[in-house]
Write a structure and sequence with these properties.
Elements (H helix, E strand, L loop, with lengths): L1 H39 L5
Length: about 45
């Protein structure tokens, strides 16, 4: 069934676009969390 394969490809493309949209935001949040942790415990390491 070729239509099924096509719909799976479309779904995968949509997921990739969504992931690419979220990835930079997640990186930004992670850096912010790391900065906050560094501020709270500067001598933790």
């Amino acid at each position: 069934m070729p239509w099924k394969r096509q719909s799976v490809q479309n779904l995968r493309l949509k997921l990739d676009e969504t992931a690419l949209g979220y990835y930079p935001q997640m990186q930004r949040v992670q850096k912010r969390i790391e900065a906050l942790l560094d501020e709270k415990s500067p001598q933790a390491l």
